[in-house]
Amino acid sequence: MSTNSPEGLRSLLDAVASGQVSPDSALLSLKDLSFEKVGNFAHVDHHRALRTGFPEVIWGPGKTPEQIAKIMMAMRDRSNTIMATRIEPDVFLEIQTLLPEVRYYDRARICALCETAIPKRLGTVTILTAGTADLPVAEEAAVTVELAGFGVDRLWDVGVAGIHRLLAQREVIDRAQVLIVVAGMEGALPSVVGGLADCPVIAVPTSVGYGASFGGVSALLGMLNSCASGIGVVNIDNGFGAAMLACQILRGWEKS
Amino acid sequence: MSTNSPEGLRSLLDAVASGQVSPDSALLSLKDLSFEKVGNFAHVDHHRALRTGFPEVIWGPGKTPEQIAKIMMAMRDRSNTIMATRIEPDVFLEIQTLLPEVRYYDRARICALCETAIPKRLGTVTILTAGTADLPVAEEAAVTVELAGFGVDRLWDVGVAGIHRLLAQREVIDRAQVLIVVAGMEGALPSVVGGLADCPVIAVPTSVGYGASFGGVSALLGMLNSCASGIGVVNIDNGFGAAMLACQILRGWEKS
Amino acid sequence: MSTNSPEGLRSLLDAVASGQVSPDSALLSLKDLSFEKVGNFAHVDHHRALRTGFPEVIWGPGKTPEQIAKIMMAMRDRSNTIMATRIEPDVFLEIQTLLPEVRYYDRARICALCETAIPKRLGTVTILTAGTADLPVAEEAAVTVELAGFGVDRLWDVGVAGIHRLLAQREVIDRAQVLIVVAGMEGALPSVVGGLADCPVIAVPTSVGYGASFGGVSALLGMLNSCASGIGVVNIDNGFGAAMLACQILRGWEKS
Amino acid sequence: MSTNSPEGLRSLLDAVASGQVSPDSALLSLKDLSFEKVGNFAHVDHHRALRTGFPEVIWGPGKTPEQIAKIMMAMRDRSNTIMATRIEPDVFLEIQTLLPEVRYYDRARICALCETAIPKRLGTVTILTAGTADLPVAEEAAVTVELAGFGVDRLWDVGVAGIHRLLAQREVIDRAQVLIVVAGMEGALPSVVGGLADCPVIAVPTSVGYGASFGGVSALLGMLNSCASGIGVVNIDNGFGAAMLACQILRGWEKS
Amino acid sequence: MSTNSPEGLRSLLDAVASGQVSPDSALLSLKDLSFEKVGNFAHVDHHRALRTGFPEVIWGPGKTPEQIAKIMMAMRDRSNTIMATRIEPDVFLEIQTLLPEVRYYDRARICALCETAIPKRLGTVTILTAGTADLPVAEEAAVTVELAGFGVDRLWDVGVAGIHRLLAQREVIDRAQVLIVVAGMEGALPSVVGGLADCPVIAVPTSVGYGASFGGVSALLGMLNSCASGIGVVNIDNGFGAAMLACQILRGWEKS
Amino acid sequence: MSTNSPEGLRSLLDAVASGQVSPDSALLSLKDLSFEKVGNFAHVDHHRALRTGFPEVIWGPGKTPEQIAKIMMAMRDRSNTIMATRIEPDVFLEIQTLLPEVRYYDRARICALCETAIPKRLGTVTILTAGTADLPVAEEAAVTVELAGFGVDRLWDVGVAGIHRLLAQREVIDRAQVLIVVAGMEGALPSVVGGLADCPVIAVPTSVGYGASFGGVSALLGMLNSCASGIGVVNIDNGFGAAMLACQILRGWEKS
Amino acid sequence: MSTNSPEGLRSLLDAVASGQVSPDSALLSLKDLSFEKVGNFAHVDHHRALRTGFPEVIWGPGKTPEQIAKIMMAMRDRSNTIMATRIEPDVFLEIQTLLPEVRYYDRARICALCETAIPKRLGTVTILTAGTADLPVAEEAAVTVELAGFGVDRLWDVGVAGIHRLLAQREVIDRAQVLIVVAGMEGALPSVVGGLADCPVIAVPTSVGYGASFGGVSALLGMLNSCASGIGVVNIDNGFGAAMLACQILRGWEKS
Amino acid sequence: MSTNSPEGLRSLLDAVASGQVSPDSALLSLKDLSFEKVGNFAHVDHHRALRTGFPEVIWGPGKTPEQIAKIMMAMRDRSNTIMATRIEPDVFLEIQTLLPEVRYYDRARICALCETAIPKRLGTVTILTAGTADLPVAEEAAVTVELAGFGVDRLWDVGVAGIHRLLAQREVIDRAQVLIVVAGMEGALPSVVGGLADCPVIAVPTSVGYGASFGGVSALLGMLNSCASGIGVVNIDNGFGAAMLACQILRGWEKS
Questions:
Q1: Does B36 reside within a domain?
Q2: Of the ranges A232-236, B45-49, H240-244, which one carries the lowest mean pLDDT score?
Q3: Would you call D231 and C231 a contact, using CB atoms and an 8 Å cutoff?
Q4: Number of independent structural domains in chain G
């Protein structure tokens, strides 16, 4: 359908203005454009890309592999890149049976339908982790950014207990455009980075830790209470959400 | 002191490279540049503007009016805009006795030393509140943004229980460059706004509410768990922090 | 036994009044009427239908399949519809061995003994979910309502991050008699629906989410703190309880 | 303005259909109808009564007396009954200076502008409290119900530790149409009442208690986990919200 | 050893007083009496029965079957009844291999070494449960009481949502000497029973429930905040602890 | 009224049995006996003494001085000892204006109407505190026990950090009949005492502490998790509740 | 009394060994030595200095000024340095009336009776704070250390958001013998310091912060979960406790 | 490499001072010295031993066996003792395949590469546990101390409910240099020990317990609120961290 893009939408509206299309039939087109009922379990939001600049992303938990595959198929006609997050390997294998062309990023637990060569956009997201155990969350962020077409700079295992490891990478922080800082345990890394960086900092607490880490709550609280002001925090283990915010920031640069 | 700017700093480093200044005396200059001991209670971080693009901001609670005034005086030589947050009216009056030229923004509880006409920068932050009681937090954000030189679009009292009030302002959201969404109680407004906006969204939970709102915890959790992905959350009632992140994002546009 | 109905009860009381039955023997009949010891583990509350209009419903967890089957058998003589909630598929299979005529609603995890055609009553409950992952809870509500004889309108996957999906269904909300709104994550959907609807709204938080959703606590708090006043909240994942309240409301209409 | 009623609205829409009013000017009327900007701090939602059957109610905390008075004045033209909740006595006195005709219900902490004789509607809400200390919350519910035109049956101090006090009032429970049960401490009263009543039960936890009552959290949890299914719970101390739900239920009877 | 009883201990002390035994060798005897090292993992407290009237009881979790069996063997010479709590069936089977004469109470998950006929003592503990799912905890209490030689009255499934089930058993409560009341979910049963009973009431919260029951926390809070004063509460699911307190109370009667 | 005692009640029932009093008029007498409406705010539970052996006790918070005085007057005809807890000094002074004969125990914050010489009963409660700051709670327990006619042994400031202070009082613990152990901070005293005592132990956590004591929660948790089994715990600062349980235990001795 | 010192105690024991003093009278002396009853509210633990190397310290909250003064007087004969913590200025003034020679350290809120020149011991404690608002807690630690005779190195306002302020003081950390690190908000400073220091690190969370700092809980959790292993944490705002541990460590050096 | 020791480092710096090595190449050497990139997942911190006196220790959770083995190999050239904590038996077996010389301490779940005979250092750590179930945590501490070359005194199962077991070991506490006290449930043991000991006390809460022990939170809170001042607390189950602090304290003795 031709209205599946900003250009298509504008054409439709012009046709209404010129009387070629009646408001009623335009309304129907637009309603259909905006979302689509998939089976009896989902409303795919095609309009989302128009509204927010990103296609809807499928959140895996609580959906059967069949439901995920069907939603991906429904979205395929209208979007070049379709992704689903929090997909465990066995779920991926079942999706693959139904959709053989689907790709899997195992460290990031992301499943995607996309062109072989994703068109590159200007801008890079710099991603830091405090420890090795934070990698799966950081990779969820990194793969999301890459699927959106932006570049990624990865800097793993630079936690604050060995502050010289971080300071030795000072120039990476200096040249960053947007920073995503991933940390578990006490979640102190964003505070130190926030005091060094001259760009927006997004903090992702992880559930890495034990005892009084309470599944990431300590890291989350550490980040919310950071003495380095101006840090945006996302949910525990939410690498995807951090990537979405980072891309939104970079898209602003594009528009400006 | 001439090193109080990026240009000054570069001159000093060139002088070291050319042998005009010994590394040891350069070190002393830089150390002094980077922070200054004020009384026996504070280290003012002059280097911060170089590192992060913002002068250090004074957080009022737990400091006496005298301490706040002394820190402001120590910063005055090196910065055009000096601000202190969370200043209650009676604290302001005591500061004013010591520093008569200080300004007070009462709804925002911010106290500032700045030029009469702050130089304008490109870029505007759009600030929304769910209710009237969220205003003090939103004003803390707004005044911080204005002191940093950016523009502010204010849209108060558009909470989700009267969703048409928000939808009627759809165009304000559409044209926003960065959004700060301030809400107490269940904190649902950023979720709805995040689904409509095509720009970065920063969510500020407020302590507005009672009973199971737990001083803003419910709003905070609502924002962290938002089904609209890509929202950066700051601490409860932290309008200042949200403003810092928003300005950091707009500054990125300037640099690009 | 003839006292197993309001009519039977009234007959007994008239017989006491007229001296045909002694108070002592009436007392014994009534005691037996009101509950029955099943094995050495349960007191089935036959009187409950008289008192509250609903037969006692069996809560599955912590009971063995044999206990559930025995309680169902004990209730069968006095009630046309007997249901057990939170029955996992393997538990159902064991119950079925003992009670072959039992039915299973797998998405709702409800097990029931009932007539093939449940007599229809006037009134319909409209059930909304924010996401696809909320379906099991919503189905528990829907099947309970249907077993009670009322109609159900289902509207799945209309969460607030794509507010136009909900607004497109505005007329479903407008014509609703009672609304059950099921949502996980931040639980914002009841706030928006509560601002649109002109009928009682019952909110069901679900454990859908991760990290700071704390197994449904965030959604629960969001609903309790809703800025849309007049929403009744039930326990996390308690689709059954929401249905019971909705049916109680519709039964009031019948009586009026 | 004539559109301030369902009838007025229908006239406007017919005028649009017949071409007497252009869609653009209709839009302007409707926009104005739906809400009104008051000062630079509030959007009064006039449309709310059309949408939800109740005029918007002013929540007092965080608003100055002047703001409350101004919002009341802005609403006065369009609504017969205007109420503000959580108004402390000294705030009332300041409002009264600006709006001398305002009434105050001190036990309920409600402030209202209304006709001397509120037109009566069919239906009564029965309100129970566990203890004497729960009265202010129960009165907030009672006065709200009365201002909405429905009747109230009050039954105070019938907590479960003296169960015979409750059972002696069995007939009050039996004839109830909707029950609001207010309790602090362990919040057990709704569980017992819910097992006796044959009508919808709304539970209101109060902050009455000490130590491990955690400001009403224990009562709230007790009500959410009630073994008597089908109880709708509202926020701690939220007598107003319970009344809104109760009235919404009774209005359904009117419509049926 | 003869000092393994109050009588033996008194003899030893008399021997010291008369000079027949030196203080030093008496000290050695007493030290050995008071506890014994078992393997390199435990100090069995033989003195405990002297001090507190109960032999030490073995808490199963975190101990290997071998450790439990060895501690039981070490205690066997000095005590007629040895019990271990929280023993899962597979752990029991391993203990039985090493100690074939050990008995197992499966509903109570208690493992014991004791005489075939435990000598009966005067006094009975009445145990109530709110629901069928509370049985394992109630049985842990019941078996502990029986192993201590006291009688048990069991009354299961009399929760407050069907208050007439409880009231019909009024005479059981009236004649009770000590009551243990076991309940999950909202934990309201002890409040009602505490208002009826004229004897000490011990409340045991159970982890029965879901969602906001938080593994028994809601029931625990309900019991701690009971409006019926004078209820002693034990840890969640701690049927054993409740039994210990109940027996301690009955032993007081014996002594008086 | 003659039915205000067990003897009076028995007479009434005999009169019914012999036909001298009709059941209907007996019912009326009993209903009046069981509770009495005081003003429009309370139901005084006269029957309570019959049911539970203690007259109803007035909990002060949330009641006006007038309400407390009126409830005391209503109870005076039927009970020799009437007490109200949590009465601050200024509230007492207002009550005294209305009821000059009322007594005040300032450390315990208890207000009582009672005979000059309370008849003594057999049995003593031993009360220990960990620190000096726990005294108000311990005194609430002590005065309650004394008003009930039992004896009190007080042992203050014997916390576990100076364990020899406790051990030097070993004989006080040895001869105790019932122990109430009051402690704040980590609440460890009941664990040590529970390992030494051969009688029931009731633990009262206090809100003494700071920081992570969370208003008594740490002490409460310490007591619930005590490794000394068989300790009954009451709410934070609930000296009154501990006393009620202790008296209930001693009354059992009387009956036996 | 001569037994008020290790030397005195040894003399007494030798006298017992040589038969000059009977064990019974020695016991009496020792019992008196070990603690002393002050008024009817406290047991002063004189033995504590013998056992733990520190005299008992008086914790001010919950004690009246009179009680504090009386305890100080009771301790004066046996100890050269007596201190009380958490003494507000007005409480100090009342103590001073009774004990004119008492000293007050206002920033530390410590009140002390001590010689003019406290004898110096070998060893120094280095104390760091993250911010200016942490000073009162840090001063409580510093004054305690100084009263115990050790030296103090103070380094204020070196929080992690300006990491260069800390790194510039690297040599202070390098030469430290024991470090006390005081921080509020996210409590990250001990993690960075712990990764740099080669000596024991004691972390003190403070209640400095707002919103999700929850009165110091976030800082506490940050410190407990520190990725820099080997940090000992004390209660929120417990500068005194940190000082006690630091002195205990330095005393070990003395003994070695 | 020769800079892998304090001596090597000093040589390098001298060479810079004398001009034999240029600052730039010295910088490169030092950068390499300070950490090393292992694969694309870790930065091994070789400099840590220089900075803090301990080699970096590998925290097992969230790392694959391959990652752990590779990090161990990278550290082998520079350190005599390399250890990894929280290694489950099956993970150990996979590491052993890659690194056959690795040792496993099963009760402590520690995996180490070290010389057969670790050189002994002066100083001993005394470790106490409250119960048998606390052993794994205590062994983690003990093995860490032993791998660091210090001695260990183990005293298991001396919890406060049998206080004479602890007092009988009074001399072990008296002669201790540093104490680690490990306890679950209410965590009271450190309070009693802290009142007896004259040396630093480190408290380790364990997750031993059930119900309201909340996975060790109750023990943690008990220790943080200890009435025995001067106790340093580490995270729940963190035997390793306690050992690190204890060794740091003993190393201070060495240096002094």
A1: yes
A2: B45-49
A3: no
A4: 2
